[in-house]
Amino acid sequence: MIELKNTTKSFGRFTALDKVDLKIEKGTAFGLLGSNGAGKSTILRLISGIYRPDSGEVLVDGEPVYDNAKIKERVFFINDETVQFSSFTLKQLKNYYKSYYSSFSEEIFENLRNKIHLPLDKKIGNFSKGMKRQAIMIIGLACRTDYLFLDEAFDGLDPTMRIIVKKMLVDAMIDRQLTTVISSHNLKEINEVCDTAALLHGGNIIFCREIDSVKSSIHKIQAVFGEDSDGKNRILTREEITQTGLEVLHYELSGSVHFIIAKGDDEMLRTALKPYSPKLFEIIPLSLEEIFIYELEVLGYDSSDITQ
Fold first, then answer.
1. Based on the number of CB atoms within 10 Å of its own CB, is 28 exposed (0-12), middle (13-18) or buried (19 or more)?
2. Bridge partners of residue 248, in order along the sequence
């Protein structure tokens, strides 16, 4: 388990994280979402032991990670930059990390390398961006750590490269219950890989959710209700819909068609609005991005500032 307890980290006058509490369960594929400067990379560097928190605690399996060699051997951090490896060949880089990670597997390294045909003796500085990301990914997986942290893991990769990197990652998560923490500003990619996600903004966690539970608990309703005393289709106000017990995140009206974003499962939504004798009632699934945007609006945030 990874825990941040009341954790603050500042750089000069800039507060990157402000009294953050976060818990990441073992075996989880966890996504950190947010725009640039939200605090995603700072969290990854704290839980990797690169940064020391200014206050609060950063724990991996109950132990402080900073300056703790025993814990650091169980985590691997893949930065969004690989320029520091430019002078190494892939073979040299493998041997460098092998000297620090006693669990390093030559078999896993060779199996992955052979799948993507990376050259051993070519300098990594001469690799394409996709090849660089693949190189450090296979080394990270070959180190066989309990925890793998990736900063903008798929950023800048072409579609084919993204598929290859994601498959390597997912296979490792399934094979040995690897705990993975991935930062991204891309909701779609987090949705494809992760089972839990936290949204950060301005050094704070706005909310943290299990992705499946989010998808099953918020829906879009398209409805036309039965006739009122004048023989016309009844028009419900947002307040009237809220009075049924539904938590309404968004409401629009087009003619007599109501478009409602509300929390609740199918049965709850149908039961709440049944007394109004709907003539048309459709429940439409929302994408993860749509759900986050509506939740942000309810919390009073400008979603374009946070999710773009």
1. buried
2. 262
Q: Is the pLDDT of residue 10 over 90?
A: yes
Q: For the segment 51-104, what is each residue's pLDDT rounded down to a tens digit?
A: 999 999 999 999 999 999 999 999 999 887 767 778 899 999 999 999 999 999
Domain 214-307 grouped into CATH 3.40.50: no
For 49, phi then psi, to 5°, come to 85, 10
* Burial environment of residue 222 by CB neighbours within 10 A (0 to 12, 13 to 18, 19 or more): middle
pLDDT single digits (tens) 200-249:
888 999 888 888 887 788 899 999 998 877 778 899 999 999 999 999 98
Classify residue 43 as exposed, middle or buried by CB count within 10 Å of its CB (0-12, 13-18, 19+). Answer: buried
- Cα–Cα distance, 131 to 119 (Å, whole number): 10
The Cα–Cα gap between 240 and 40 comes to 40
Query: Residue 296 above 80 pLDDT?
Result: no
Give residue limits of the domains in the chain.
2-202, 214-307
Main-chain dihedrals φ then ψ at residue 300, nearest 5 degrees: 90, 15
Going by the DSSP 8-state scheme, the letter that residue 185 receives in this structure is S
Q: In what order do the strands lie in the sheet with 29-33?
A: 75-78, 147-151, 179-184, 29-33, 196-201, 204-210
Contact between 168 and 138 (Cβ < 8 Å): yes
46 pLDDT above the threshold of 60: yes
Q: What would be the CATH architecture of the domain defined by 2-202?
A: 3-Layer(aba) Sandwich (3.40)
DSSP 8-state code for residue 155: T
